[in-house]
Amino acid sequence: MKKLFILLFILSILSFNLYAGGGTEDLTPTQASEFSSYASWTKVNGETITGDITGFLGAAHERSKGFREIYVNDIGQPVEFGNQAYPFPEGSIIVKESFENNKGSKGDLSNLTIMVKRESAYSSDYGDWEYIMTKPDGTISRQGQLSMCIKCHAKSDYKDYTFFDSSM
Ligand code: HEC
Question: Which of 67, 68, 96 to mutate to test the pocket of ligand 1 (most atoms within 8 A of CB)?
Answer without folding.
Answer: 96
